[in-house]
Amino acid sequence: MICIEELSFLYPDRTKAIDGISLTLRKGSATGIAGANGAGKSTLVNHLNGYYLAQQGTISIDGVMISKKNLDQIHKMVGLVFQNPDDQLFTARLYDDIAFGLENLGISPASVSAIVEETLRQLNLWELRDKPPSHLSQGEKRFAAFATVLAMKPEVIVMDEPTSDLDPKNRRKLITLINSLDTTTITVSHDLDFIWDTCQEVCIMNKGRIAAVGPAKEILSNKELLESNNLELPLRLQ
User: Which is nearest to 33 in space by CA: 2, 77, 70?
Assistant: First the structure.
């Protein structure tokens, strides 16, 4: 589904955020990306929907090369759930936030209405459809942000620190949601217990490079490997 080959990226101040990364992710896989602050995790995933374009190397999604001319197609294929839900919710009514992307695709009003209702009911948000997103609780905002992505039915869902603002109840609810999806998922998170619960594979990053890739439980049980990359064992293993 995703093929990254020799990807490198420099910021304008010449900081090398990505340094020659190659990675292949299978269709339907659930992959966690972990690493200390500044490891390059967010920069990497921001390449997957074309927010950043490769300066060196290539990325393809299901055979489609990510390039300026293909961005519209890539945006339909890859949904990104931002770390801060407020960056994703911007209309005066929750219903309109979910409908926005669908309407921009030229989908008929009747189909938009059906998809929005289906998605909001799936996430137990239907009763909140007329509320301004700013009036939602933090947990409700998080699931509303997911709804804006799920409604588009992308082939790949990328999540940036999805548990950063969740209480234990909503965190468990999110785990159940992620594990119910049949799309390819990529989770960037410091929450290694969440990666343990939702991902089959994990990629450890350090200073813009891949330090290790493999089965999630095997990698996340390796105390020496984690500590050498400025990470700690999941809480359940401590």
Answer: 2
Domain that holds residue 32: 2-237
Distance CA 87, CA 137 (A): 15
User: For residues 1 and 155, what is the distance between their CA atoms, to the nearest angstrom?
Assistant: 9
Give yes or no for a contact between 223 and 233, defined as CB atoms under 8 angstroms apart: yes
Structural contact between residues 23 and 38, judged by C-beta atoms closer than 8 angstroms: no
Instruction: Report the CATH number that the domain containing residue 98 is assigned in CATH.
Output: 3.40.50.300
Q: Of 96, 129, 128, which Cα lies nearest the Cα of 112?
A: 96
- DSSP letter at 74 equals H
The three-state secondary structure class of 75 is helix
Number of domains in the chain: 1
Res. 1 pLDDT band, cuts 50 70 90: confident
CA separation for the pair 234, 238 (Å, rounded): 7
pLDDT tens readout for residues 146-175 = 999 999 999 999 999 999 889 999 999 999
